[in-house]
Amino acid sequence: MLVKVLRLKDARELALADRWPSRRGLDPGLLDYVEKIIREVRERGDKALIDLTEKFDGTRLTVERLRVSREEIKDAYSIVGEEQISAIKLARDRVERFERSILERARFEYGDELGVRIRREYRPIRSVGCYVPGGIAAYPSTLIMAAVPARVAGVRRVVVCSPPRRDGSVNPLILVAADICGIEELYRVGGIQAIAALAYGTETIKPVDKIVGPGNRYVLAAKSIISRDVPIDHPAGPSEIMVLADDSANPHYIALDMISQAEHDPNSTSILVTTSRRIAELVLEKLIHLIERAPSGDRIKAALEHNGLILVADSMDEAIEFANDFAPEHLEIIAEKPYEISERINSAGLILIGAYTPVSISDYCLGTNHILPTGGFSHVYSSLSALNFIKFVNVAECPKGALMELSGCARTLAKSEGMLNHASAIDGRLKA
Fold first, then answer.
1. Is residue 372 part of a domain?
2. CA atoms within 13 A on the CB side of 90
3. Cα→Cα distances 295→8, 259, 260, 292, 309, Å
């Protein structure tokens, strides 16, 4: 069967077994393999990047070609169509506006009756590396989602790494998107070796202070390993969709959305949780019908067969409880009173409301970010945003009157902890 249709109560434990926090840690064999490649990059630098790129991407580069030149970026504009350029600019502008609105609300000032004033301010981190996957397709939208929030936050050095094609070139869509987003440092390096180079540096690529961006299980493992030394955004692996639906939902829309996410990768996850057996059966029929004429049908079929599920819940309460435990990357709510349902969701990377808010629109130009936690990590991580590229600092001022009022509390706690010089630092001001 293309997708199994099961009762939620029968499939619940099996569906959650491979999710965080039930599953902790990556496959040890995978980690050992990735660790060796990271070590090779650390030890051999640019030479390792060249050899590994030939091994994994099938093209032999030179040291001089690791960095994409301005001429290549300029030439890319003659290949990319005006419609694509306009779409990239619109997507950039919408993401940028939303990210600026986030930062506008991040800074505030507090004051109390004693005259103590505290300002919460932010400062950008110094440098960031953005990983943009390649392989099956080019993802200019991912470059936008990674680079624009960093630029909005004020990061001075934003570096992009993306794997080359067989002829050694980087897809022109990536080059144009990088230029439109103001990226001046772009390398044709992908996979584990790109993460290692960004983390530890080579002769050509200087290390960065933080690494963001999605990738396959090898990239995910590499980010996990280097996170001991360099901060990352969050675990972002194969794409996931969960749809919560009742009997009012349109089964055709649900099937389209499940297929659209299965298109990403054979390891993508597509799940429908519905309170309606009728909807479950209709969605299965639609899937079988649509997949026969869908582009990339073989890849979609493989993903649905391995990671597709249709689960029938006894109630919406049961469905919501499962959604919170599963913690999907994307959660669509296509049901009556969707906002009431969304208020009860506390673990999802992105919640999409109603029949006309598919994951597809959020992937490109809704304004929200599509770099989201997967694998159950939306229990503890949020979507990528400008907040990932800043750190907060509190700026405080205490007038003498407030110091006098608060000194008793501070002296008592300082002496209780044996910090007598802390107490003296306060007393010395009050006696002056």
1. no
2. 10
3. 30, 10, 10, 9, 21
CATH number at residue 326: 3.40.50.1980
67, 138: one domain: yes
The predicted-structure confidence for 23-61, as pLDDT tens digits, reads as follows: 888 899 999 999 999 999 999 999 999 999 999 999 999
Q: Which residues contact 104 (CB under 8 A, 6 or more apart)?
A: none
Number of domains the chain contains: 3
Domain presence at residue 391 = no
Residue 231 counted as domain residue: no
CB burial of 152-172 (b: ≥16 within 10 Å; e: otherwise) equals bbebeebbbbbbbeeeebbbb
List the catalytic residues: 329-330
Q: What's the whole-number mean pLDDT along residues 280-299?
A: 94
Shared domain check, 200 and 99: yes
Give the Cα separation of 123 and 305 in Å (integer). Answer: 47
pLDDT tens readout for residues 398-424:
999 999 999 999 999 999 999 999 999
pLDDT tens by residue, 223-277:
999 999 999 999 888 899 999 999 999 999 999 999 999 998 888 999 999 999 9
DSSP annotation of 205 reads: S
Domain coverage including residue 124? 28-226
Distant-in-sequence contacts of 141-144, Cβ < 8 A, 24+ apart? 141/91, 141/177, 141/363, 141/364, 141/370, 142/213, 142/214, 142/370, 142/371, 143/174, 143/177, 143/178, 143/181, 143/183, 144/88, 144/91, 144/92, 144/95, 144/177, 144/181
Model pLDDT, residue 135: 64
Do 8 and 34 sit in the same domain of this protein?
Answer: no
- DSSP string of 70-86, one letter each residue: HHHHHHHTTTS-HHHHH
> Do 119 and 170 belong together in one domain?
yes
Judge contact between 375 and 235, C-beta under 8 A.
Answer: yes
Burial of 148 (0-12, 13-18, 19+ CB in 10 A): buried
68, 187 contact by CB (below 8 A): yes
